[in-house]
Amino acid sequence: MVQETGASAGLLYLRPPGERMLGLEMLSGVSPQIASPWARLPADAPVPVADAMRERRLVWLGSQQDISLHYPRLGLVLPYDFMLAAAPILGAAAVWGGFVLLWPPWHPPQLDEAERRAVDDGCRRAAAVIEQATEGGRPLRLADEPRLLLAPHSRDADPARTSAALDFTERLPVGCCALDLDGRVTFLNAAAADLLDAGAAPLLGNRPWEVLLWLHDPVHEDAYRAALVSRLPTSFTATRPGGVRLLFQLYPDADGISVHITPEPVPSATTEQGPPASPLGASALYRLTHLATALAEAAGVRDVVELAADQIMPAFGPQALALLTVEDGRLCVAGARGYGPELMARFDADPLTSGSPAVRAVTTGVPGFFSTFADLERSVGGAVHHDDMAAWAFLPLTVSGRPVGCLVLGYEDTRPFPPAERALLTSLSGLIAQALDRARLYDAKKSLAHTLQTGLLPHTLPAVPGLEVAARYRPAGHGMDIGGDFYDLIAPEPRIATVAIGDVQGHNTKAAALMGQVRTAVRAHATTGSTPGDILVGTNRLLTGLDPGLFASCLIAQLDLGDHRLRLATAGHPPPLIRHPDGRTGTLALPAGLLLGIDPDAVYPTTEIDLAPGAVLALYTDGLVEHPGADIDDAIAALAHAMASRQHPDLGDLDGFADALVDHAERTAPRNDDIALLLVRPHDRP
Q: What integer pLDDT is reported at residue 21 of this predicted model?
């Protein structure tokens, strides 16, 4: 197929029936090392061959920009100039695999009729071979390693001519060496050995950048990869120990690469200097790889904006960046760096019918690169120069054919935007688009979860004569910032008040929803005048009946403000703390009770003690005292010490007391759980 289509390289993927993976079985014209990241692929991977098999059609990518736009990960890993076709191997009842063919950039922008026919015929022949083998009892199985097929050729191997060729190269005053497809040295002449300051023996059969430490630079290996994939001559310079700079020129074909090595000429003082070097290259690629890794951890849209600005602006040199998102038929500013708020406000909520460069990029899906304002003005009639920039890139952000936004880059100086830079920026926009789509979904879920949780927690606590109350809630510092902590105050009679605090296992919407059910059950039983133990018994039966797969802890305290008595019961909850009017502070030891939701017949005894006016009772969840590496008993003792050492709050200052206890917990160790705190203090003042 490679020969009949004139392709520079080919890869054959197969998928046995029932397998979820594609296996690279054969390849030609490309190194197995370069192809190794794609040796095994999930059948639903975002790569051309998987799409060709899934959609049962030929996938054609006619330029580096096409590859970067539709397959940003592929464009990021192979940012070289080539064309690609992927075609499925269609059998009578199965898709057996697919071919991937590569052409150099001088190939016409489309396959001609003969090439298309050769691809179709090759796929049919492959399907026939596979089905014939399967019917003959030899089912398709994936090989452990792909098989490299060397391109056949008709070069004369006459010994006399071979000897003459070797003599010719030895007489040349310039260095010559040859690399195979895997980058290993197969030949070098004496001049090359002298220039490299190394003998032939250690180099033959090895990759030069793995033997010579001064060539161990990603830029040099990247030049070899670029030549091999694009079939275009490439070059680079390297400095040998001793300060000698050498120019390496690489000339690739289907069998390997010929390398021409010469000392780099010293430029004359009068030589006209060209434009500054492009910031692209291996360093930019590695920065983009770092960005891709960082974007995978971005939680919200704000994280995506900050990460994009932190990585793109140093790597590619824009002085301004704006990230716009599609919202209800408008293009809204999600964040910016280098652009002032007044300018961003002017373009915020721009309708998708406005025809601005950003809107045009979003609606057409085609990136816009403008080297000068004159280019922008020619493209967008009546364009107004709003900012101080001289060049712009408008990159559409698209996920599965659906526009999600636009990335705008602004440069203070005019910029040519060479093809390699355009392709890399286009690949980058694809990565940001996927991260942005995930971030928007995360933000939407987080907003929904917070709405759910805040709707289930009490907005205010009822005023009870003779009782002062202060409540605090802090969400966890990770995940979706929601959980199952709750508190409540129920006053079924004028001089009776029941306070409850609890913690449902988990940090998700399921925990928050179950928290609402537990709180409702506690409130329902408390309003009937039940004792704390009976409230927990009834709530436990409800929870075990629901069988949610989650457990909950809970503590109920019932205050009789007339008799100054306190009744308590616990279901596996941290013990309450009490600060007496004279400042003595300690924990209240209560009979242990099972967590709610384990045993429907569990019993929760009620304990009764005196509670003098002016005493402060603290109910809290484990997030206030529990953190990795610390003993919870020590943490509770430290919290009790913090209560005792604080000056006794005046009437009406219980809120300040609650803030001080939460601040103490947050200063002690990083939080990784929700915090709920409820302080109650009876008093006998009017």
A: 86
pLDDT of 656 > 80? The answer is yes
Spatial separation of the C-alpha atoms in residues 335 and 661, rounded to whole Å = 36
Is 161 among the domain residues? no
Tell me the pLDDT tens digit for each residue of 385-413.
888 899 999 999 988 778 999 999 999 99
pLDDT at position 451: 65
pLDDT at position 273:
41
Residue type present at position 264:
E
Q: Is there a single domain that holds both residue 176 and residue 259? A: yes
51-60, 199-208, 215-224: segment of lowest average pLDDT? 215-224
Whether 154 is covered by a domain: the verdict is no
Q: How many domains does the chain have?
A: 4
- The one-character DSSP state at 220 is H
Question: In this structure, is the dihedral angle defined by the CA atoms of residues 64, 66, 68 and 71, taken in order, positive or negative?
Answer: negative
Element (H, E) at 294: helix 282-296
**How crowded is residue 155: how many other Cβ atoms within 10 Å of its Cβ?**
8
> Do the Cβ atoms of 182 and 203 come closer than 8 Å?
no
| Exposure b/e, 453-473, CB count within 10 A at least 16 = b | beebbeeebeebebbbbbbbb
Token digits of residue 186:
């197969």
**pLDDT tens, 299-320?**
788 888 888 888 788 777 899 9
Q: How far apart are CA 630 and CA 628, in angstroms?
A: 6
> Closest Cα partner for 305 from 327, 337, 341, 343?
337
Kindly give, in sequence order, each residue whose CB lies less than 8 Å from that of residue 384, ignoring residues fewer than 6 positions away: none
* Residue 577 resides in a domain: yes
Contacts of 316 (CB under 8 A, 6+ apart): 279, 280, 284, 409, 421, 425
Nearest in space to 12 (alpha carbons), one of 92, 82, 131, 98:
98
Residue 575 structural domain? 457-682
Report the CATH number that the domain containing residue 123 is assigned in CATH.
Answer: 3.30.450.40
Quick count: other Cβ atoms within 10 Å of Cβ 172?
A: 13
Verify that 301 and 234 share a domain, yes or no: no
111 close to 60: Cβ distance less than 8 angstroms: yes
pLDDT at 157 over 80: no
For residue 435, what pLDDT is reported?
86
**Do residues 463 and 647 lie in contact, with contact meaning Cβ atoms separated by under 8 Å?**
no
Helix (H) or strand (E) holding 430: helix 419-456
> Alpha carbon of 612 to those of 441, 566, 680, 682: distances in Å?
52, 9, 12, 7
Q: What is the mean pLDDT of residues 348-368?
A: 90
Percentage of the chain beyond pLDDT 70 is 89
Contact 605, 560 (CB under 8 A): no
> pTM score, two decimals?
0.55
CATH at 603: 3.60.40.10
